[in-house]
Task: structure prediction
Amino acid sequence: MPHSGNHSGHESNSRCRSNGDARGFLRRTYRSLKRTVLHDTLLLPYGVRKHRALRQSVDRSQTATYTSFCRSPTQLEALLGPVLDHLDPGPPASKPLRILVFACSNGAEVYTLASALMRRYPGIDLHVDASDVSEEMVRKARSGLYTRDEVLDGDHVSDAFVDFTFDRSHEGLRVKPGIKSRVTFARADLLDPGLTDRFQTADIVVVQNVLFHLEPAAARTAFRRACGRLKERAALFVDGMDLDLKLELTRELGLTPLEYKCREIYRESRAHHPVAWWNYYYGAEPYLVLRRDRVRRYSTIFLR
Ligand SMILES: C[S@@+](CC[C@H](N)C(=O)[O-])C[C@H]1O[C@@H](n2cnc3c(N)ncnc32)[C@H](O)[C@@H]1O
Result:
C-alpha cells in the first residue's frame, strides 16, 4: 500500500537521520575529547616545549591571507559593549568613532566590524581606514564583492548578518553602499617606517592574525608601530601574536587587558587551529587557567 509504503519509508528516513545525528554527535564528542584530554592536557608539557622550539627556528610566511566573516562573535560583543563604554562613557556611540585595521586581507574582518557597529548603533559616525600589504587583497576588499562561499565560510555567519551587510546580485554578494562608504582601503606595510605618518590616530586599532606571521624582531616593530596609532584613550584588538611577546609588549606600553569573556574569545579564535597546535608556529596553546598572567596572555583586547 502506498500509504504504508510512504509511512515506513518516512520512518526509515528518520531512523537514518537519527542514526546519522547520533554518529555526528559521537564523532564531535570524540574529537572534542581527543582535543581537550589528549592534546590540550596529557600532551601539554610536550606541546609547550615543542612549540617554543619551533617558534625559535621556523621561517614564517607573510603570504597567508586566510580570513573569514564573523570569526569571533564574542569579540564583537565585547566591542559593542565594554569597549565602546571605555571609549565613550556617555550615551553609546554618541561620538565619532575612528578605527584602523591593519593586515585586513580581503576585507571580511573590516566589513564584519562595520556591519556590527552600524546594526547596533544605526546613527553611529563611523570611519574605518583599512590596509594590507597585498595589493591583490586591497583590490578585492575595495570591490566589496564576494561569492556566497566566501561569505558563508565563517562558522558564525547568520542570515541576519548577510541581510544587513549585503545586496544579493547575479555576481554574488555585494556590500551595501551605506556600509562600504564608511570604509577606505589602502596598501600599507606594517614594517614601513613611514606607516605612522600615513594614518591618523584612532579610537580602535585592529592588528589581528598577522604578527605571528612575522619574524619576532619584525613583529615587535610592527606591534609598536600599530600601537603608535592609538589615541590617548583607545582600544587595541590583537589576536594571532606570539603570547610571550604579547605579554612583554603590552606591559611595556602600559596597555590593560580586557577581562570580559576573555576565555570564550580565546576559544573562538583557537577553533580553527589544528589540534596538534605545537606543529605550527601559528598554533596556540590552550587557555591555561592556572597561569597567573592568563588574562594578559590570552586576551585579544587591550585598553588604555
Ligand atoms: C592571516 S591574514 C589575517 C587577516 C585578518 N586580519 C583576519 O584576522 O582575518 C594576514 C594578512 O596580513 C597581511 N600581511 C602580511 N604581512 C604584512 C605586513 N608586513 N604589513 C601589512 N600586512 C601584512 C597579509 O597580506 C594577509 O592579508
In short: The two ends are 74 Å apart (CA to CA). Residues 62, 64-67, 102-105, 109, 132-134, 137, 189-191, 208-210, 213 surround S-adenosylmethionine (CB under 6 Å). The mean pLDDT is 90. Residues 73-303 form a domain with the Rossmann fold fold (CATH 3.40.50.150).
